[in-house]
């Protein structure tokens, strides 16, 4: 009985400790300055508000999101570019969630000199703060590139 109680107490302590650790997003790959960001770091960046209405595999979904531009995050890390003509057009950005789900965007979609799509790492949905950032890709008819609980951003 004591062992069971000890095991439950330890599990509760471990969960409580994990809950107190801030959610982080790492930015790595072809960047000059790899980053580890928290929700407060994202909130310190210029806020972008977007409303989306998209189809999902479970039916329609809509919401109002606030977050930081994915481009701002990548720009802060500093892209590593070679010397080839238009080398920046070869970059892709792989955004992965804690469950392994991932989506890819091209630099051409994000760069304000090109499409400048308002893709954000949302930290709020409908005014409520999210536990982990969420990738929101406005303009997609289907929310397949929406990644919940973002943990890594890898620039290739």
Across the major sheet, the strand order is 2-1-9-5-6
For the report, how would you describe the main beta sheet?
Answer: 5 strands, mixed
User: What is the overall silhouette?
Assistant: globular
CA radius of gyration is 18 Å
Q: Which H/E pattern describes the elements? A: HEEHEEHEEHEEE
- Helix % is 10-25%
Helix/strand-derived category reads alpha+beta
- CATH topology-level fold name: Sulfite Oxidase, Chain A, domain 2
Stretches where pLDDT is under 50 for at least 5 consecutive residues are: 3-10, 13-18
| Strand composition percent | 35-45%
Say what oligomer this is. single chain
Q: Figure out the total of helices.
A: 4
Q: How many beta-strand elements?
A: 9
CATH class division: Alpha Beta
Cα-to-Cα separation, first versus last residue: 53 Å
CATH architecture: Alpha-Beta Complex
Count of spatially separate domains: 1
Average pLDDT reading: 88
* CATH 4th-level superfamily: Oxidoreductase, molybdopterin-binding domain
């Amino acid at each position: 009985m004591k062992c069971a109680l000890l095991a439950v107490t330890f599990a509760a302590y471990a969960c409580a400790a994990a809950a107190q650790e801030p959610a982080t997003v790492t930015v790595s790959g072809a960047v000059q300055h790899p980053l580890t960001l928290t929700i407060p770091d994202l909130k310190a960046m210029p806020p972008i508000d977007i409303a989306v209405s998209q189809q999902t595999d479970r039916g329609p979904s809509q919401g109002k999101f606030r977050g930081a531009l994915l481009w701002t995050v990548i720009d802060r890390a500093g892209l590593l570019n070679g010397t080839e003509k238009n080398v920046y057009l070869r970059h892709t950005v792989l955004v992965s969630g804690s469950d392994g789900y991932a989506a890819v965007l091209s630099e051409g979609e994000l760069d304000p000199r090109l499409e400048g799509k308002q893709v954000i790492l949302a930290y709020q949905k409908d005014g409520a703060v999210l536990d982990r950032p969420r990738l929101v890709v406005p303009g997609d008819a289907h929310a397949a590139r929406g990644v919940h609980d973002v943990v890594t951003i890898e620039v290739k």
